[in-house]
Amino acid sequence: MKPIVAIVGRPNVGKSTLFNRLVGGHRAITLDLPGVTRDRHYGHAHWDAREFVVVDTGGLFLDEQGKGAIEGKIREQVDLAISEADVLLFVMDARAGLLPDEAEIAQYLRRSGKRVFFVANKIDGPKNEEKLTDFFSLGEDVLPVSAEHGYLVNDLLDRVVAPWPKLEEEVEDTAPRPIRLSVIGRPNVGKSSLLNRLLGEDRLVVHDAPGTTRDAIDTPVTVDGRDYLLIDTAGIRRRGTWASKVERYSVLGSLKAMERSDVCLLVLDATEGIHKQDAHVAGYAQEARKGVILVWNKWDLVPAKDRKAFLKKHEDELPFLAHASVLCLSAKTGEGCDAVWPEVNRLHALCGRRISTSDVNRAFGGLVDAHNPPVFKGKPVKFFYATQTKTFPPTFVVFVSEPQGVHFSFKRYLVNGFRRAFAFGGAPIELVFRRKRR
User: Fold this and answer.
1) Alpha helix (H) ranges present in 28-68?
2) Is the peptide bond before 393 cis (omega within 30 degrees of 0)?
3) For residue 45, what are the β-bridge partners?
4) What is the mean pLDDT of residues 371-382?
5) Residue 232: what are its φ and ψ, rounded to 5°?
6) Which residues are registered as beta bridge partners of 218?
7) What is the pLDDT of residues 117-142, one digit of tens each?
């Protein structure tokens, strides 16, 4: 799992502004739990060749104000964020000064045993740093920032990520380990039925009522001498449709299970077609940068004469997964299920492919030469070279004159070009743009 940084503090101190500052410049979609201002929000962030997850939270109260129904739910969510985090950013409003309950919150966060950074927000420049005086009584090093304008946010990030290894310094584990395969999808599409079919036994509870599975369930299995870890997950519904606190937590568990998997089977119901919830789940898998196989379950219920038209109708409804492979099967009858394991093996191998730097730059040079470069502040962006830095997913660092000048459409062009040049198929590809040091 990536390190988790939770942003906590009283209401209206700029937590969400800081959250947007940290994740807004990257491709990750914020994963919203229900109740925009009440619950946790998740986003992916990059800084100095490190990757981490940022969690925004609702306003924290420790006194009597926190005993109301809504405030109590907010407190539950904040406590969960604190428990799962590796680092806490305690944000305070420098303009308002240090408030009495913030001293209590500081003590509360210290007791968590986590690394805590004390952040005084709304400091727009050096002339405003005199407002830090009130915060000296906390006995901590208080870091001034302006989340809105970005003032000294870079310095804060430097300190947060310092203990973590850079991507280039990561040593990949070459020891054999099981392929981690998660089965994801909205409720009641047949995820557990498919797992039982793959396992050859009724290991998991199957019921017609949606939401039977609450927790992610890990099941080791060996097929043809190869080890797998199958992860069944609770059905993931779209934001605003989660019925209970239990379901809220189970959905979070599903997202975490997706994060630690190598390959995801996205199960769809062939009798219903693609729902909005299916697109939401697919989006979560894409943002987690996992290999995805689209699985049309209940294929036996689609008349043979309609199958070709069915696939043609739905192939454009998930355009961001146009590169993903598609399996049509029936978990109930077993039709098509034998194709799952070979396709999982193939996609896993593609996600683990490593391309030599010379081959990368041969393809990269051709792509750059064949397309007009993007323009930034009136000057064309210069592209120097590229290299692969990691696998799972295949990640390439591209050195350019101005990373901010690379438009998302040109990034998409390069991704599609790499996919064709190296036959990556349904494997996700990540591009990171960095400024070349002269």
Assistant:
1) none
2) yes
3) 52
4) 91
5) -85, 145
6) 231
7) 999 999 988 878 888 888 888 888 89
